[in-house]
Amino acid sequence: MKTINLLGATGSIGLQTLDIIRNHPASFRLSSFSAGRQEKAAEAIIREFKPKLVSVVEKETAERLQLSYPDVKVLYGKDGLEAVAVDGAADTLVNAVIGSVGLEPTLKAIEAGKNIAIANKETLVTAGHIVTEAAQKAGVELLPVDSEHSAIFQSLQGEKAKNISRLILTASGGSFRDRKREELQDVTVEETLNHPNWSMGAKITVDSATMMNKGLEVIEAHWLFNLPYEQIDVLLHRESIIHSMVEFHDRSVMAQLGSPDMRVPIQYALTWPDRLPLQGTKQLDLAEIGQLHFQKMDFGRYRMLHLAYEAGKTGGTMPAVMNAANEEAVAAFLDRKLSFLQIEEAVERAMENHTSIAAPDLGAILEADLQARATVRSLLR
Ligand SMILES: NC(=O)C1=CN([C@@H]2O[C@H](COP(=O)(O)OP(=O)(O)OC[C@H]3O[C@@H](n4cnc5c(N)ncnc54)[C@H](OP(=O)(O)O)[C@@H]3O)[C@@H](O)[C@H]2O)C=CC1
Ligand SMILES: CC(=O)[C@@H](O)[C@H](O)COP(=O)(O)O
Ligand SMILES: [Mn+2]
């Protein structure tokens, strides 16, 4: 029996994690969870899973829930998130919150000796060196949930890190993969949110369309697998059937395949090194699919990917700045305050405005994150 604390329970990854817990009552139990602003969804989770601790964003929501559910401790805000992350009964934290808000609770959970199933890629992008070092020191596992990183992790089982030649992250190309750059000027939020292969939260779906998602994933892979950027490639693959690959020095390539279903990597992070059956997922039928397509990545078309490699190679506080600027710009796009291509302009501007600090501590990272957000907000004005 694995006991789980879950950050971001009301989101896309959070709800799929709950589905896995629901379907394996003998293997998993939910101890505590956090939600954001979806009060009704949080209530439904309280009623079904009967956790002992819950956190939400707003104080008023917490007070209302506390009155309705006196047997549950209900907290709110940053302190609440951290309390859920470290809640004593659990051995594993699933971090499925969105954005760099996930960083500090993750560090607290590591200090408390929890294994981390990490969906929240922004945490690793923002402070990969701090998170990986803390995990190593505490002797806890950082288990990838992101589909590409899970694919690499699965492909590496039984292999030696010294034999890796390169990682090949696959990218679907996102909502506008069949459009030229000139055709992106007036694209709408609704069009952007129409991902061809995956049903995900709004922010990551926009990131897939700008290719920032793959940029974040390149940096995430750098930290999870401890490889230089020169050994991390991206390949366009329309179908999202090959979830990523590892090439070894003998030119042998290991890949993990499957129908696009995030419950597979979420469950693997929770069962590793074992596996459990997964109810309701589509069996891969390659005969039905017929063909898989691959295409070289065009860094001119997808400028965000270029910026992410630059940020990763610069290191220090630059990835945190890129990530925070992107979070602000995507929120502004979803709020109809920036156009699609202005997301990229805002990120580039924030990076230009910033001089990276090498080997930053947590304080320097949080400060750089705030500054980048302020830069993007000033562009909006
Ligand atoms: N969705 C997917 O298939 C994949 C997602 N990921 C990564 O997983 C993470 C989660 O993505 P996804 O599930 O799509 O995101 P969603 O937007 O669907 O869910 C985000 C969750 O975080 C909560 N939340 C949002 N803002 C805050 C805040 N300020 N404080 C506390 N909680 C907050 C939301 O609460 P509420 O909704 O109640 O407001 C919700 O529970 C991201 O880092 C993403 O990149 C990685 C691979 C695939
Ligand atoms: C499901 C998942 O892991 C997402 O991060 C996915 O990778 C998005 O697809 P693309 O970024 O390849 O469009
Ligand atoms: Mn991914």
From TrEMBL:
Domain 1-deoxy-D-xylulose 5-phosphate reductoisomerase N-terminal stretches: 4-128
Domain of life: Bacteria
Domain DXP reductoisomerase C-terminal: 257-374
Organism: Domibacillus enclensis
Annotated GO MF terms: 1-deoxy-D-xylulose-5-phosphate reductoisomerase activity; isomerase activity; manganese ion binding; NADPH binding
Domain 1-deoxy-D-xylulose 5-phosphate reductoisomerase C-terminal: 142-225
Keywords recorded for this protein, A-Z: Isomerase, Isoprene biosynthesis, Magnesium, Manganese, Metal-binding, NADP, Oxidoreductase
PANTHER family assigned to the protein according to its UniProt record, in alphabetical order: 1-DEOXY-D-XYLULOSE 5-PHOSPHATE REDUCTOISOMERASE, 1-DEOXY-D-XYLULOSE 5-PHOSPHATE REDUCTOISOMERASE, CHLOROPLASTIC
Transmembrane regions: none
Pathway(s) it belongs to: Isoprenoid biosynthesis; isopentenyl diphosphate biosynthesis via DXP pathway; isopentenyl diphosphate from 1-deoxy-D-xylulose 5-phosphate: step 1/6
A Pfam family matched in the record: DXP_redisom_C
NCBIfam families: Dxr (TIGR00243), PRK12464.1 (NF009114)
Protein name: 1-deoxy-D-xylulose 5-phosphate reductoisomerase
Binding site for 1-deoxy-D-xylulose 5-phosphate: K121, S147, E148, S172, H195, S208, N213, K214, E217
InterPro entries xrefs: DXP_reductoisomerase (IPR003821), DXP_reductoisomerase_C (IPR013644), DXP_reductoisomerase_N (IPR013512), DXPR_C (IPR026877), DXPR_C_sf (IPR036169), NAD(P)-bd_dom_sf (IPR036291)
Keyword Magnesium: yes
